[in-house]
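Bit of a strange request maybe. I'm writing a small parser for structure token strings and I need a real example to test against, not something I typed by hand. Could someone generate the tokens for this chain?
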Amino acid sequence: MDRGGDDLVIRKATAADAEAAAQLVHRAYQHYVARIGRPPVPMTLDYARIVAAGHTWLAERDGHLVGVLVLEHFDDHVLVENLAVRPDTQGTGVGSRLLRHAEDEALARNVREMRLYTHELMTENRAYYPRRGYRETHLSGDPPWRRAFFAKELRG
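Reply from user aminoacidic:
Good idea to test on real output. This should exercise your parser:
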């Protein structure tokens, strides 16, 4: 468990957390449905299966779920598969703390590269990640699923 020096607690998700994680993801991505023309992929996934895979982390503040982080581990990088923050807590550092947690996970496995992607129309995300040291590497895919890919080299 990571307390990080403030009231935010980051912990590994358990099977009992799957439904709450799915609900938070839906709330976090709901405003993109009209922009993209359909639910973003994270809204369509089976969070019981995702949590069971063992790479899902939750951020809680005062006992309330405020963020979800899903990682996928590879030999040469860690992929942030999903980062979702409850809308009413966005801008309070939850996303940044979850990204730092993901980077700490990578470094603990002696992996020095982070990767992530976002839908090309999620312009807020495309502005957010570079402010946290990620560089956009390329666009890929066909509409409506065209994605912007990012990477970050870690030092540790």
